[in-house]
Write a structure and sequence with these properties.
It is a single chain. The protein is α/β, with parallel strands linked by helices. Helix content is 36%, strand content 27%. The protein has a single domain, classed as STAS domain (Transcription Regulator spoIIAA, 2-Layer Sandwich), CATH 3.30.750.24. α1 runs parallel beside α2.
């Protein structure tokens, strides 16, 4: 997993899973705490995430809300969009462009 960017936009790549969760949490919390306005999380380079990685995203979302900020997901890959829909988190998280639930392939 790698994260690059600043306190307004971060690009997450690789795998966001149990092995990378602690590092990702540290970087995301720092970006939330040190910035202002929306924090855009570009996931277009993300290969996969597991429940732990999704928990990191949700933790950053809650922390951003407490700081008066908003976490916005950009470039969510289709397989991860399906997971957000299945868990109904697409209703809670801000997703740039939204998720076209009807256009997602069925699994």
């Amino acid at each position: 997993m790698h994260i690059r960017g600043d306190h307004a936009e971060l690009v997450v790549g690789g795998r966001l899973d149990v092995r990378s969760a602690a590092d990702a949490r540290t970087v995301l919390h720092s970006a939330v705490d040190d910035g202002a306005g929306d924090l855009v999380l570009d996931l277009s380079e993300l290969d996969s995430w597991d429940a732990t990685g999704l928990g990191v995203i949700m933790g950053a979302h809650r922390r951003a809300g407490r700081c008066g900020r908003r976490l916005v997901l950009r470039g969510v890959p289709p397989q991860m969009q399906r997971l957000l829909v299945a868990t109904r988190l697409h209703r809670i998280l801000a997703i740039e462009g939204g998720i076209g639930v009807d256009t997602l392939p069925r699994v």
